[in-house]
Every structure is written in C-alpha cells, then in structure tokens.
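not sure who needs this but someone in the group chat was asking about DUF2252 domain-containing protein from Pedobacter miscanthi so here u go. i didnt clean anything up, its just raw.
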Amino acid sequence: MSTRSENIKSFNRNRVHEMLELKYEAMKENAFRFYRGTCGLFYERLSQLKSIPKSPVGWICGDLHLENFGSYRGNNNLVYFDLNDFDEAIKAPVLWEVIRMVTSILIAFQTLEIESDQAMNMAALFIKSYATTLFGGKAMDLDPRTSKGIVCDFLTRAEKSTYEDLLRKRTLEKRGKIQLDLEDERHFKLDKALKRELKEHMMGWLRENSESPYNYKVKDVVYRIAGTGSLGQKRYLFLLKSTIRKENYLLVDMKQAFPSSLAPYVREQQPHWPSEAERIVAVQKRMQHVSSSLLSTSKFKGEDYVMQELQPVKDTIKFKLIREDYRNMYQVIDDMGMLTASSQLRSSGMDGTASKDELKVFAAKKNWQQSLLTICAEQAALVCSDYGAFEQDFRNGDYSSTEN
C-alpha cells in the first residue's frame, strides 16, 4: 500500500466503517471525485509548500470546489446561489481557499476532457474575479433577480421547485401513511433501537431548540448518504409532519460534525467553539449572504450534529452539460470568483481575521495572481498522481476492508 493510501485511511479512521466502502468506491470514479474525498490529504501537502504568496487571514469554508457552490432556500424563503458546504470551515490564509478552488477547476475540466488551455483560462478568470471583488470591498450575492445566464436559469427553475416534488422523490405511501422510501439508494434502514432513540432525540430538539419548526412531530427517520467527502459521517434524515396543517411535511437533515481536516495544518489561533457543530454553523452564518433554513446544532449520544432543512432547491451546476457552452461556463466561473471574495468580505474582521481594508490592500497587489496559477497547476498534477496510486491500491484490494 502506498503512503498516500495509508494517509487516506488514517484520515477516515473515525468514519462509519460500513459506509467507507461506498466512499472509496465513489472516489475511484475519477480524479475529481477523488479530490473531493481527500481534503485533508490536499492541505497536508499544501501546508508544507513554501512558494504560496503571503495573504491575510480570513474565514474560509476550507473545502471549496466546483460542487460546493449551489442553490438553496434561505431562512427568508428566497432562493440563492452561494457557497454551501462548511464542514471544514476555519480561520486561515485566504489564498488557501482560492488554491483549493482553482485546483478543482483544473482537475474537473481535465476529467470532462476540456482543453487544458480553456481550463487555464477559466482558472485565471476565477482568480481575476476574486481579486476584483476583494478590491471593491463590497460583498455581493446572487438570487434570481441579480444573476445572469445559466445561473439565472438555474435559480429560476429552483424557485419553482416545491416540497411536493421533494416528498415524491423521498417518500412513499404505505398502508395510508407517508414514510421515507427505503428503495431510494440514498436511504438505509436503521436498527429499531437506534431509530427509537433518534425519534426521541428529534422530539426533544423540536421542543427545546429556538431554531426548530413549531408544531411538528416525527414520523420516520433513515440513515442518509450524500456527497463524497462526507460519506462515512453519521447522517440521518427525518420526516416531520405538522400537528396543525393537514398533509404538511418537513424533511430535516442531521449530519455529524467532525473537526476541520485543516486544523492540524493552520497556525492561526482559532476561537474556542462550544462544539464542532457550533463552529460549522457559526462560520456558515458569517460567510453566506443568508443562512439556510432551520440551520442549527444538536448533540446526540455525546456526538455533535448540524441540523438543517432538506430542501427541494438545493443543487449544483452540472458542468458536463455546459462543457461546449463557453459563454455560460465563463459566467459561472466569474460568479464563483465573486462569491468566494464576497464570503470573505462578509466575514472580515471577526475573531481576529483581516479587515476589509486589509483584504483590499492585498487584492491590489498583482504579484500573487500568476504565481498562484502555477501552484494550482502543480497541485492538480500531484492530485492526479495520487489518484493513480489510489486506483492501483484499490485494484490490489487495499481498500476492500474498511478497518483502519
């Protein structure tokens, strides 16, 4: 087994072993899927790199890549396009976020067999958009009224998505009762005792948490899988029914919170968070323009969890559908650069992070942009090499057992 594979298994040692085989199988799909599942491995190497230009300290989501932008319905009931994954969120040099994202562009475009020159152009565009927005000093957001091109079409469709659509996909009717569909490949049946404990926990959360919805009761719960990097984390999906309005349901996601995989590699002093879930939720509220619906925390059997509503509108741009559409691809990447800078401006000056003025001064410097492109190209090549080693080890059976 290669050293990289040993590190990958070490990073995943605290995950649910039965689900790790699914994660490793997903990572085998292509280099981009591998990249999404190995955030810790990426930052372990990045932290040792001496050539990274010095940048101010800010709040970063930590695992920024093309699939971690998407639509969601905010707690104001409006639809937005923004960063949407904060499991790895931490205080760190702001360029770490940019390097992670730009490297993802190069790897994803290679996976999609898009010409390397076009990939580099898009990478440069992201950096330019990021720097321009940072220099402007004003955080911006995207909703159906302010977006353009494919993002506007994407959000307009998302606005029309209904809870009935989501329920049809996730539930079925059995003996006159609505329950979560275990035929759905994302849903897994729970042990009866655990299911009972989870229902009791959710009822307590509904009674006691100020962010929880009013007048709902628990009807069903399943184990849920989603994403790539988070496969193996304990994650549950609850079906709630209104006690007042007939046939009114909610779906609530409860996801286990782990320490950020960047934590061993950052030198910056972090705030003292009451829990890892509190860290994730606090930084998400700082960085997003509007928070997701029902975003909150809970503790179950001594473990931290992030709670939020599962939504019919949460989705990501499918780049393989626009690979031949240069104009739309340009607009999406430009928007992503703007949103990344906006998230850092929005959360600036909090808990010892750089102020807007400091971010503006940094953005005005030109010497870091070209060197960043070179670094990202080098990192993309190294990730693809890691993926090749992972594939070989996978074929050799080194990932057949999830025991670490």
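also The mean pLDDT is 92. if thats useful
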